[in-house]
Amino acid sequence: MLEFITEAVVLDRVDSGELDSRVYLYTQDLGKISAKVKSVRKITSKLAGHLQPLNKIMARIIDKNGPQLIDALTIKNNPKTTASLKALFFIKELAVEGQPDSELWHFLENENDLNSKTILSFLGFDPAFAKCHYCQKAGPENFYPADYAFYCGPCSPTGSYRV
Ligand SMILES: [Zn+2]
What we know:
The protein is of the alpha+beta class.
């Protein structure tokens, strides 16, 4: 069975089924991945505390019908702010799975002040040069992940995020 150990930053964890979860990680070696976590929601699970968004962890992952995280240990707790959590959300939504990016990784693991503008630039969506996708106005203030585009206030579809 394929097993690997990598440093990772936790992007998100969502419940699936009664006890299981799916964790979204940005890893040093594989870029963004999502992995199953078995029984993480049991009250005794030691993993849950390590799988908080923004934690830098050492992750042990096996490939068993897709990636499954079997162990995690916190290396560093990063301060959680609304801005940093939104930045993680953009990575989760927009980064290509399984494509490592060492620059983004180094930024993520060292930066204590994550913000959406910088993260969007890393992902190839630089707000500084963006125009509203609809009316072409410069300096659009929102980003809409579903169509990978910036919009000015009045043109923004529901579900846009301020950047
Ligand atoms: Zn517009």
